[in-house]
């Protein structure tokens, strides 16, 4: 059982009981932004696009956080490869799963990208993620979890956010905030948008320490095919491929990391920093992944292959504006 | 002081870095601290977060609100005219149990440097350390000003887990960890102080630019302090500049 620590009282008493937790299931929203000076990474959904779509399907529009005033997504369950089996208790709610996943309600296969009404006693089982690495499960009105510094995102390492600051465990009770809020959205469906379908190279802007590498080293970084190793989690992905040697050495005076920073440690194998990363690091960074390609990166898993392509920052900003326009079209499409 | 040589580099379309290069220097770090305060005070719309480090300042932004081009122009203007004055900062008294189960590398470390137990404790507790940055893990404080005789290369093989509250030495730095973390540094002791506690207001006590002084305590005192949930370490105001030679 989850202790109720940090979880506000849910008036409705509607909750999901966790019968099986899945491989690594955590509550994530759009992240705890702007806290790097405390040593706190942003956390948040690795595929922010799928998070936003899951929330939109059940009618969870971003709302200003009570502490920061910044708009924040509702927290949804981020499911990694093998998902949880949940049983609803105490009343009705509406859920939607985004990502490419096999989802069953009371043993019957159901559609993803569709808002589904559940009754008390129903079993919701996200059996597995089919392509990509992650799926997102949103519930109308949201899960009841107290935000910390403007976010309910779970950071297991610091024991903050989500439910008791950890991944789900069998026997946990996940109270819902306002399950009545989503009921009207039952049946609402959206286009199956999967970032992992995009096969083009992952776009980066070189730097800030690309000067530590030779021209040949940078060329190798941009032409090689890389494979995500088994050391890949919410903190970062280690890549396999050719060794990249920095003539200037592999230790720098510690410098800031962002999500998507590509560090080259002493063994010459890149590490891409992900959302639960350290906030600073002591390896030179050859490049930084652009914002528009982070969601796709978030759907990668061990064994997946990728290449990098260098672009300039203004082009990256244009691509991000394009992504945001596409997302607004997606939302407009749901409203009809 | 003079403005250090800096350049501004893109961090893709996510941020920009005001970078003073490969240096551990108190004057550079003070300038970074002043730059962080100035950027925060400027309240530039679209700035999401500010991460000061030893030698750089990362500024995260939202390109829907401000373009990188506009942001760099604003930051360049701020940085070029920045003045670093005397500033009050806090000096924290952080109690530490040295050696034994609290600092498993303490004995190897003092033998390596041919120091007695008391000599090592005296050298580690003497300085007023400057917090050069908070980074890596929540509340992890990187401290500058370590006695030169205690400078020690990192361990060849990092440990995958070190306890919360570890006081350690790596290279020319010493540090004070808040949460359990992997580390290749030498563990000299442990403090009952938790610099980062999620439910506390404020969640973090010791910040970049603050000053830290360690006080040796024994294991019994450690247990007493650790069990007292309301206990917080003492601190006092000092003029920045007086702390570190």
From TrEMBL, chain B:
Keyword Plastid: no
Family matches, as InterPro entries: CT_C_D (IPR003833), Cyclophilin-like_dom_sf (IPR029000), PxpB (IPR010016)
Pfam family, one: CT_C_D
Stretches assigned to the Carboxyltransferase domain: 6-206
Leader sequence segment: none
Keywords: ATP-binding, Hydrolase, Nucleotide-binding
Lineage top rank: taxon: Bacteria
This protein's name: Allophanate hydrolase
